[in-house]
Amino acid sequence: MGVDPEEASYLMEKLYNMAINQSYIAAQKELAVKEAESREKDVSKDALLKVWLIEMLISGERKELTGLFAYSCSKLAISRSSSCNICTATMN
Questions:
Q1: 74-79, long-range: CB within 8 Å, 24+ apart, which pairs?
Q2: Sign (positive/negative) of CA torsion 88, 67, 74, 53?
Q3: How far is it, in rounded angstroms, from Cα 77 to Cα 41?
Q4: Fewer CB within 10 A of the end CB, N or C, for the chain?
């Protein structure tokens, strides 16, 4: 008993479409993971800067804060367009 050519063609087309669909879903999930990692990195940098600022305020070194905003942002690789509200407000 052999396989009908039409049935074989139909099954091959179904398998092909399923493979494309699964590849698309995997690419979407990979992109979502990369976006989440990027957001986590930005939040982590912002939190690190805020902790540093709080430590400076607690230690009483307020004079040094004014000149160090730009330095700390560049050291942490935070640009003016990022989510660091403190540095953005100070540098503008």
A1: 76/45, 76/48, 76/49, 77/45, 78/45, 78/46, 78/49
A2: negative
A3: 11
A4: N
- The total domain count for the chain is 1
3 state DSSP class of 1: coil
Do residues 46 and 78 lie in contact, with contact meaning Cβ atoms separated by under 8 Å? yes
* pLDDT averaged per 10 residues, the chain (length 92): 85 96 98 96 92 80 57 54 49 44
CA 50 and chain centroid, separation: 19
**Which structural domain, as residue segments, surrounds residue 31?**
5-91
Q: What is this structure's pTM?
A: 0.51
